[in-house]
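Before the break, one more example. Copy the sequence into your notebook; we will annotate it together after we see the structure.
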Amino acid sequence: MVNVISPSQELIDHYFEMDKYHPHLTLGQTYWGLSETEILEMEQLAMNELAPYPTFNVHFVRVYKEVDPNPYFPFVDIPLGAKS
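Here is what the structure looks like once it is written out:
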């Protein structure tokens, strides 16, 4: 996506993780009130329940905007290819 947008190298260096980014889904955080123990339990449950990890189609990328420190709200959905 960064290549398509073609920002300057300065913007890339400041805002984008590029090859350092590791795609992931956040299942929970201590910020949301979970304890470290609950996070570890959730990790084990996710590995047991989700493996083998399913594949799925992605039709859009949702960009979130941080309004204050930490609350994020949907900002824009970017479609990926044609809808089927």
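The chain has one domain: 2-79. Helices lie at 2-5, 9-15, 36-50. Try to locate both features in your own notes.
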